[in-house]
Amino acid sequence: MSHSIMSGTRKHLISQLVFFDEQYSIFYDQYVREYGRDKQVIDSLVQRYKETLEKLLAGDDDALLQSLHGITLLGSSVKVLFEVDGYEESFTVVYPTDIDPDNNRISFLSPIGRQLLLAGPEDSIVLESPVGSSHVRIKEIRFTYMGGFS
């Protein structure tokens, strides 16, 4: 992968980290407050996410590139295999402002998004959704950001 793409990816991940460091209280007031009793779960998830980003960004570009396929980040597309019927589906985990259900772009605050964020390849998880539970295995993770950041 080209140096400029990795540089852009690194800047994008740094901007996520800065966002959570500097804007979390505003973000919380707008999005997390409505989750009420889940506040501690979301706070813990955001803290783990920030710690993960710090570790990833501490490495060189080769290590970062390898990590982009090894852990689900904001901006990752995750292909899951539903174990009961072998059906595969992809979800992209995004900020709440970037959701697009028609294109399977889901908020990391959603029940499915929370379960996918920070998951790795071959992890088996139970996706809890309003329609029930599904046992899935993560087949592939691709960080879909590969260019400019607005």
From TrEMBL:
Top-rank lineage group of the source organism: Bacteria
Source organism (scientific name): Brevibacillus reuszeri
- Per the UniProt entry, what are the Gene Ontology biological process annotations, in alphabetical order? regulation of DNA-templated transcription elongation
What is the recorded name of this protein? Transcription elongation factor
Q: Name one GO molecular function term.
A: DNA binding
Query: Sorted alphabetically, which keywords does the UniProt record give?
Result: Elongation factor, Protein biosynthesis
UniProt feature coiled coil, ranges = none
Which InterPro entries does the protein's record reference?
GreA/GreB_C_sf (IPR036953), Tscrpt_elong_fac_GreA/B_C (IPR001437)
